[in-house]
Predict the 3D structure of the following.
Amino acid sequence: MENPFLEIDALTKRYPSPGADGGDLTVFENVSFDINKGEFVCIIGHSGCGKSTIMNVLAGLDTATSGAVTMDGKEVVGPSLDRGVVFQNYSLLPWRSALKNVTFGVRARHPDWSKEQVLEHSYKYLEMVGLSGGAEHRKPAQLSGGMRQRVSIARAFAIRPKLLLLDEPFGALDALTRGTIQDELIRIWSGSDQTVFMITHDVDEAILLADRILLMTNGPYARVAESVEIDIPRPRNRTEIIHDKAYYKIRNHLVEFLALRSKALAEEAAPAGGANGSGPQRPVTVRPGEAEDDDDSEPAHGVEHRNEADVITLAR
Amino acid sequence: MILSLGLRALVLSAVLLVVGLGIWELSTPAVKSAAEMTEYERLMGGADQEARVPPPSQIIARAWEELSNPFYDAGPNDKGIGIQIGYSLFRVLTGYFLAALVAIPIGFLIGMSPLMYRALDPFIQVLRPISPLAWMPLALFIIKDSQASAIFVIFICSIWPMLINTAFGVAGVRKDWVNVARTHELGALRTALTVILPAAAPTIVTGMRISIGIAWLVIVAAEMLVGGTGIGYYVWNEWNNLDLTSVIFSILMIGVVGMLLDAAFAQVQRAVRYQE
């Protein structure tokens, strides 16, 4: 089998404890997973499990205590234009217009391009996210949250990175705006062969967007426990996807993990403090969507779990 | 009829001005014209036992006279107000821009490097509270030129607000924006110019505005010391001539020029400001 596009091997992050007792704080330990080219992978876990740290390590903005990230056969050291990042708070430069924010990225990517080329390319991506007709000349402060995140997505897509990293991109948006931008993201993504890695707190969002969902146990000593395959056929649509018979099986599985097992698994691992340190282990692959309807081994059916999930999603 | 706030403020300002000048004018009894005085009275400065502050009408007349021919030059002790202000502005701007050339790069360095911040901080803390005029004897001794010494005093007093504000602005640039530069693989120089400089510009320009204000305050005192030319020298010279009308007129001119300098920097501030 050929090497996967992105390999994360035994990634560990420890912070030295403030006291002199030598007890370090291990946020996550031995996190290992792969991402294939063109795949859309979401990662879900409770706050504090180190998702954002993993993302920052992938982006090259942070370093892990141990472990390695390999992309396209090369180890990831420091930030690079090959890995585009969309931050939760958009991170647009407020003194530049929407258009100038995009040209900022394009010019960094293609320093040899003429001014016209840069503009043309930037306009193409701004139109793709639905920003045109004058709005592109506004400063970020004059745009709504949804519009700002669109600009940020346009900037990231316009540099055509090998890997696109999205850190809870829709976390700060209202539900309606979130829905439309999710649709736009799928549309742009399906027209490209972009590999995407995304953090989210929203179970439904993850099922809608992802090919695969990675589930993290609670920190400290968090790890990626499961890799859930989403075998709902594409193109997916927010209104139709809920009628797919695999949808609720997957959803219940995820909710059950977040509500119960993420904690239970963490408690198993924590006292050992490195018991799962027996070399890089890939997470278990699960396909809840394929389970038989009357399969009793499938743990979650009830409405009560779904309610819990809503609490979890909102309570972050 | 409801006037806008701005218009009402303007009317009130005008009323206060007229009332203030009126009281001043009326409290100053008219001096007998020279023709009515005896020669002795003229020699004694108007026969009064006490000299009086001149009334505003005299000051306005003097202002009209001076401002209608601001650039005449009738020897070292008789130059137009325009020439005097020109000398002062030249010194202020020269010292000020030399200070900016030093303060902004060093401010960047201090703002970006915690090591440099800690290493240079004690020097800044000791040098900053020194009155700029205290440097004057040393400057005169070392530079041996009064003109250059005045410029040096301006340099040393404008440097601190710019230095401190630049360091503060640069250190306070949001991590997110620096991360944007990093993920776009920008080099150190391009990051400094395209991300950190515009992000810190409002704070830097605020420092520059404070500095120009201080420089204009200090130049008057410095010129009183070094003499020769400039608005500060002019004030002192008119005092020595016991020409209080000119003293008051030049005090007003100092205020007007200072206000214009400040207004210019307010414009720059508006240009670099951004909303998060």
Notes: The first helix of chain A runs from residue 51 to 59. The mean pLDDT of chain A is 83. DSSP finds eight helices and eleven strands in chain A. The radius of gyration of chain A is 20 Å.
